[in-house]
Amino acid sequence: MLGLKSYRFGRNLAKSIPSFLSRSCTTTPESTGTDQEMANSHPEEPIVVEKENNITLIGINRPKVRNAIDSITGRKLSAAIAEFENDPKADVGVLHGIGGSFCSGYDLSELAGQQEPQQALSIVHHPEGVMGPTRRMIRKPLVCAITGYCVAGGLELALMCDLRVMEENAVLGFFNRRFGVPLIDGGTVRLPALIGLSRALDLILTGRTVTAKEALDIGLVNRVVAVGAGLGQAYNLAMSIAKYPQLCIRHDREAAYYGTFSAKSFEQALEREAANVTVELLQEAKEGADKFRQGIGRGGSFSGIKERKLPDWERAEMKHESKL
């Protein structure tokens, strides 16, 4: 019986390993061979979307320019994130870079090639943002896997996400400061809210490099992981969110953002928090309370909090085991 359980666990584990992790998407500042193979598999697509269970992975795929984003790529990223938000089967997203770096910012070669200032201004004034949908709140949790270079507008993209997982040798900084390119994708708005105005001004005005250790110390990132583990650990973090009832997650997340950025007073934030409770949310809470009464989740265990649909092969093996 023990042998069968071990065998079944091994099969279950093998089937549950996401295909993107098996490709070993290592991300040092210089691309590795296996990482380059991933980029080569989608040579014409600047944005690559993959789905694993209820997690959506959105990859920036312009490795030859360290994933710098031009206006076309920015619009495609906006479309990919909107599709993730509207997908009823997707609960959490992971934003990452393919080919060694997360994102080196806006593609300055596009700006340098603009002959008419009005044409450049039309790109800047795109309603959603230049780098992606950076001028609005994403409706579902989004985790950022920071690898290699995450600088200038790329750092603004990372700030757009809810949580950030950073590899220990990755590089952060507003390097656009060196070239006189302003922050126009939410960096000046989100960063002070995350780490405080004084620290934010230090990074914004100097454009200096920020190491992983400092980023973790000041609250700019949430996790620091080993080189090559960024995407995998970001996926694990996304899974730790996706396992919970999602209506409650989205309500609490929206209330936190509203209280931080939009509420005019403490009282208004509290009023919005209560006013956004719906019948559907209360039904989800009731189901959770029923599970608690049954003993599920007590003693710090989270097994059984969210029901998991078993594949046919696993159901068949469990049925077979029960007869032994």
TrEMBL record:
List every stretch annotated Disordered.
Answer: 24-43
Q: Spans of biased composition, class Polar residues?
A: 24-39
Q: Which InterPro entries match?
A: ClpP/crotonase-like_dom_sf, Enoyl-CoA_hydra/iso
Family the UniProt entry places it in: Belongs to the enoyl-CoA hydratase/isomerase family.
Q: What is this protein called?
A: Enoyl-CoA hydratase
- Organism for this UniProt entry: Anopheles quadriannulatus
